[in-house]
Amino acid sequence: MTTFVNLLRRLGLWALAAVAVVGAVVLWSKGVVLSADGQSTRTERVASVNDNRPAADAGEAAVDLSEKQVGSLRIGPVARHEFAILKTAVGTIDFNENMLVQVFSQYTGKIVKAFYNIGEDVRQGDILFTIDSPDLLQAESTLLAAAGVLELQKRTLARVTNLLKAGGSAQKDVDQSTSDEQTAEGNFKATKDAVRIFGKTDAEIDRILSERKVESTLVVPSPISGRVVTRNAAPGFLTQPGTAPPPYQIADLSTMWMIANVIEADAPAYKLAQEVTVTVPAYPDKVFKGHVTALGSMIDPNSHRQLVRSEIDDPDHLLRSGMFASFVIRVGDPVASLAVPEAGVVREGDGTMTVWVTTDSRHFVKRTVKIGLRQDDQVQILNGLKPGETVVTEGAVFLSNKLVLSDAG
User: Fold this and answer.
1) What is the pLDDT of residue 67?
2) For residues 346 and 398, what is the distance between their CA atoms, to the nearest angstrom?
3) What is the pLDDT along the chain (409 residues), one digit of tens a residue?
4) Which residues, including other chains, have CB under 8 Å from residue 134's CB and lie 6 or more apart?
5) Beta carbons within 8 Å of 273's beta carbon, 6+ residues apart
6) Residue 109 and residue 138 in contact, taking contact as beta carbons nearer than 8 Å
7) CA torsion through residues 331, 333, 335, 340, sign
8) How far is residue 368 CA from its own chain's centroid?
9) Distance (Å, rounded) from C-alpha 352 to C-alpha 348?
10) Is 352:370 a contact under the CB 8 Å cutoff?
11) Which of 185, 229, 319, 372 lies at a CB distance of 3.0 to 4.6 Å from 380, suitable for a disulfide?
């Protein structure tokens, strides 16, 4: 009987101890502790720096760094940046066809000499080639014949005039000789102008008349100053007016064309006279400037692209026809928007773009954002950040890698 009573006493003590433990846990969870005299006392939690940490939303992750690790990062506020509204496209460089001349002889003939080669510069009036022209030979021969007839008619008129004074001829003979002399003079002037059309000067015509010697060689000068871009001329080559190929092509290289085909969706953004900046792989550090001079009047039904042609200034003659080129056109006013440096934006494995946000420079929360334009080492933030928030501006990849490693561990 005594043993049974002792057992009950022990069980009672254990129950009291269990109740005390449970009560202590409840009091601790409520911030209440017991003093030495058994009275309860409520404690206040000490606010720590981490109370201000940005809370990670569902699907976001956070990383804590030491002071040494933070030293390798750059942190700054989210600010606004002006982004220009630009369109880009690729195309090819070509000669400015408004300043590209095919040089033909005005008359049929065989080339005697050609004086310039491809790549050489010429000035307006420089002789490109000479031809042996049967048309010029005929014109000069006709001129000499007309000059002889005119001289004969002048002598005849003088003779009959003298006879009339001496009573040895009639007035009608004088009148006829006068008419013949005027006709001969008109023919002489016409044949002289015909020779002048071939490019002969008055001095050269006078020399032909004085020496009574025809010159069948016709010179063909350059109509503009520029560079020889095509040469088909060679001694013995038969050239005819307007018949391809031309003996020479001369291009003024002070301006070139850039011809691009832009996508159909961008076509409404392009306007005449818009400023253009062009770069080519041959000169990656040089920017060429120009403006839009022509827009295609139709969309290609196969590629669904529109022609955009720009005139590019090239005073140093660096561009070459056929070069691959890319251009940028400002098509609207700049737009002010939130922006983060490129080094602060990370492309994750699933394709989303993220930045790291912090309030205490120790605790960093990954934030998914929507980006827009990229200019001047800045990335436009369309959604996901607020003005003034502090983000990692350089070294964001380090945080993303650390998060991956911690998840893997």
Assistant:
1) 82
2) 10
3) 444 334 334 434 333 343 343 343 333 333 333 333 333 333 333 333 334 444 445 456 888 888 888 888 899 999 899 888 888 889 999 999 999 999 998 888 899 999 999 999 999 999 999 999 888 888 989 999 999 898 898 888 888 888 878 777 788 888 888 898 899 999 999 999 988 888 788 888 888 888 888 888 888 999 999 999 999 999 999 998 888 899 999 999 999 999 999 999 988 899 999 999 999 999 999 999 999 999 999 999 999 999 999 999 999 999 999 999 999 988 877 888 999 999 999 998 888 999 999 989 889 999 999 998 888 899 999 999 999 899 999 988 888 887 877 766 5
4) 108, 109, 216
5) 291, 292
6) no
7) positive
8) 34
9) 5
10) no
11) 372
Look at residue 384 in the predicted model and tell me its pLDDT. Answer: 92
Q: And the tokens for 356? A: 């790291």
What domains are defined for the chain?
2-42 (no CATH), 62-83+335-408 (2.40.420.20), 89-96+253-332 (2.40.30.170), 100-249 (2.40.50.100)
Rounded to whole angstroms, the Cα distance separating 172 from 124 reads: 55
**Rounded Cα gap, residues 368 and 384, in angstroms:** 6
CA-CA distance, 324 to 371, in Å (whole number)? Answer: 30
Q: How far is 251 from 257, CA to CA, in rounded Å?
A: 12
* CA–CA dist 257, 275 (Å, integer): 14
Q: Which amino acid is at 281?
A: P
Are the beta carbons of 48 and 360 closer than 8 angstroms?
A: no
**What DSSP string runs through 207-243?**
HHHHHT----EEEEE-SSSEEEEEE---TT-EE-TTP
d(CA 330, CA 292): 11
Give the three-state DSSP class for 359: coil
Q: List Cα–Cα distances, 65 to 5, 37, 390, 392, in angstroms.
A: 62, 44, 16, 13
| Distances, alpha carbon 350 to alpha carbons 276, 342, 353, 354, 368, in Å | 36, 19, 9, 11, 12
Strand extents, DSSP E, 264-319:
275-280, 283-299, 305-313
Q: Which amino acid is at 337?
A: S
Q: Using CA atoms, how far apart are residues 237 and 248, in angstroms rounded to an integer?
A: 12
Distance in angstroms (rounded) separating the CA atoms of residues 259 and 277 = 13
Cα gap 289→310, rounded to integer Å: 10
